[in-house]
Amino acid sequence: MSEFKRIPPEQAQTLREQGAVVVDIRDPQSFANGHISGSRHLDNHSLADFIAKADFDQPLIVTCYHGNSSQNAAAYLAHQGFAEVYSLDGGFDLWRSQFPGEVAQGNAE
Fold first, then answer.
1. Which terminus in the chain has less CB density within 10 A, N or C?
2. What pTM does this model have?
3. Which residues form the Rhodanese domain (predicted)?
């Protein structure tokens, strides 16, 4: 698939439970202050290493603040060859309100 799909937090949670990888493209301070448990921080510095080590067949969920910037990042990653790429509608803000128990703090996990 060279396109991505937009999904709500409920569907993202189901995919996480099935082993999907979650990447967060917000700034490092926002990520450290709170992010989806188990997610990886992805920025221009970590992108090449992430792609080099990635399993392109594993579903990939991209999140940002509100679900806007993640769409551009998801499109980019889909064009890099990832088979299933999703953008989280509502971003981390909506996620945090719906799944407060699935939020972690601290630097990259």
1. N
2. 0.94
3. 16-104
